[in-house]
Fold:
Amino acid sequence: MPSWEAPPSFVEYVRSRHAELLRFAHVLCGDPHLAADLVQDALERVGVAWLRIQRQDDPEGYLRRVIVHRYVSRWRALRRERLVADLPERRHIDAEPADRELWGLLAALPPRQRAVLALRFYEDLSEAQIADVLGCSVGTVKSTSSRALTKLRTGLAHRARMSTGDGVS
Amino acid sequence: MNDLEERLRRLFADDRLALPSSPDVVARTEAAISRRRLRRLLSVLTAVLVTVAVPVVIRVGLAAPAEPSPTPSPSPSVSAVAWLDEPTTLTEIEATQPPARPAARACAADDLAARAVVEDSEGAGGHILTIVRLANAGSSRCTLSGTVKLAGIRTERGTFFDNVGWKQYPATIDPGEQASVDIETSFACGGAQKQNRNVVMTVLGRSYPLPRARLDSTCVVRVGDWYVLRGPAEPQFRYDGLTATLQAPATVARGSTVDYVVTLTNPGPAAVRLDPCPIYMEEVVKNVGFYRLNCAVAEIAPGASVRFAMRLRVSAETPTGPTHLLWRLAEAAGFTAEVTVPIEVR
Structure:
């Protein structure tokens, strides 16, 4: 069977956009290894249909949808276990942002809540656009976003109480 | 904007979240796609082979004890389904995508809500997507198909973002559920802009004013068909009815490959089909592997057991001493058929 050869436009696209896709996936899922897996997986799925997808208006938007879709729908129960059972042979990447407190709280959010926040505050998508990406209503996006922000606020308040000693009984 | 939202924006903009791009990403993608194609070809060949070989394999598997007595060096190739050298990742685990609903009776005008809801989007690349939703106000499931007419507006048919799998056409909707239709306007065509305000949509002969819809456009307005949004369902366990036992050598050497046998037993009253072919995880200390099971055996009959040969590479850096060998099936819903046995690394 002949091996698959990437079309030149795909090669050019990947070389110019790979780093940005990795960053988007990292913001989305919070784990650099998982981000690399998600992007690689999406490239493999999109690559085979690249010429068709390229003819559409927004191939990068399509690719990001695939990344979000795969993250939200396939990682619910496994994500935390994967973080614990990280592979030792993989190169360690120091990817902790300055705001470790908020980054840590984000890690505890369910994938869909985290995806809504990433699409809203990293991608700057409107609620309607996020609804379209996630395949839900705008109302669901609003309630999901609200729950996520409430959870973060609660977590920050709890940590603040603990650090001042108010939370210690 | 409140402080938390601003803090999130700053966090996501932190340059430390940037990840290094790999120079061989194109080569890896080409190799992976080639492998996928090859696997697809092999699966077709296997399917042909299985029709001949499976009865023999199952008989051999059933003849073996469900919980074999421990031996220092099991001989899996003699009595077990062969190990399949197909490493994979968790991203290969299939989502529980809801099946397409079968069409129901056609919706009548009286089934539909008196008002339609308009949700607009800024879109991208100069295109604006306006989504109109209309609920089933009737008492039973019905199917809304075709598209809509917009009074006084020239339209053409189109589809939008249909490749990801959220939309199901036509819209078969339960009472209270909404059908959706996409309307795309665009300023990408140049020329004079046509203002389309006070839009009125016609569905099944009934008029629906859409006061929130602003369909200004320099292009012909494109209208999709009715669909229903069906996001992925919560994943369900497929294989949680199976139990696993494991036969492995008591000791393994660092830097060696350990062969062992996993026996999957179906204690339930119904056959368990290995479709989609499951992924399993194996681990000794931090030597973790994800592989696809060899599904030459298509199903495990009620009360039957099937033995599967396994192989795990134990790295030379693995700490010596007593530890455990963990094996389990990995599903989108979580892990099942988990088994752990003590093992010593030397």
User: Anything to note?
Assistant: The radius of gyration of chain A is 18 Å. Chain A touches chain B through 76 residues (CB under 8 Å). Chain A is about 70% helix and 0% strand. The first helix of chain A runs from residue 8 to 29.
